[in-house]
Automatic annotation (TrEMBL):
<feature type="domain" description="FUZ/MON1/HPS1 third Longin">
    <location>
        <begin position="96"/>
        <end position="195"/>
    </location>
</feature>
<dbReference type="Pfam" id="PF19038">
    <property type="entry name" value="Fuz_longin_3"/>
</dbReference>
<dbReference type="GO" id="GO:0035658">
    <property type="term" value="C:Mon1-Ccz1 complex"/>
</dbReference>
<dbReference type="InterPro" id="IPR043970">
    <property type="entry name" value="FUZ/MON1/HPS1_longin_3"/>
</dbReference>
<dbReference type="GO" id="GO:0016192">
    <property type="term" value="P:vesicle-mediated transport"/>
</dbReference>
<dbReference type="InterPro" id="IPR004353">
    <property type="entry name" value="Mon1"/>
</dbReference>
<dbReference type="InterPro" id="IPR043971">
    <property type="entry name" value="FUZ/MON1/HPS1_longin_2"/>
</dbReference>
<feature type="domain" description="FUZ/MON1/HPS1 second Longin">
    <location>
        <begin position="3"/>
        <end position="64"/>
    </location>
</feature>
<dbReference type="GO" id="GO:0006623">
    <property type="term" value="P:protein targeting to vacuole"/>
</dbReference>
<dbReference type="Pfam" id="PF19037">
    <property type="entry name" value="Fuz_longin_2"/>
</dbReference>
<comment type="similarity">
    <text>Belongs to the MON1/SAND family.</text>
</comment>
<comment type="function">
    <text>Plays an important role in membrane trafficking through the secretory apparatus.</text>
</comment>
<protein>
    <recommendedName>
        <fullName>Vacuolar fusion protein MON1 homolog</fullName>
    </recommendedName>
</protein>
Amino acid sequence: MHVENSDAFKGVESWVPVCLPRFDSGGCLHAHISYLDDGCDICLVLMTVNPEHFQILSDFRQRIGEKLKKVNAITQIKIALGKDRLLTDEISCNELRFFAYKSRGLSQYTSSKLLVPYTTNEQHVRLFELIRYVYGRLHDPNHQLKIVYYTGEHEALLGWLAPGFEMYAVFSPLVTLETVTLCIDRILTYIKREENQLFIMKCEYF
């Protein structure tokens, strides 16, 4: 969930209806939105289908906050947020501009930061419209495509729908297929190595 004007949510516990027609065409989810620390952008969103569960989620939020502070997790999150760490640097692939990876088994995703040339809202919209186009090709029920490779004036994009994951990787427009293959392999190796840091591998009850 992307929250515009996030400062408006700091210091308060908000209760927001969220319409997800594919989840429930006859109702909506309810999101409890709060910040565990007013000093940085650590936003916690708890979801429920019951509109009467505000207090239950508020109490749960309190328990989460207490446990995170007890293990010093909030401080570690602040440190991580302050780092200018680029996944593309760790992967060492100069032609790679952006990637998004979804674990289909966990229903969670991770992505790299948007870098140059994607620095304006217009460029963001253009990029994600392209990703949405490739997504549509992969998920077209009339065509069982597993890989879509698109080349255009501004970038090249690979979409890959595998049994365990879904990936979208954006490269400079003149990238070679050899480099794309090498970069994808490095991304997958990196994600496998760091999966405990990138994903919630198991649920822990507070």
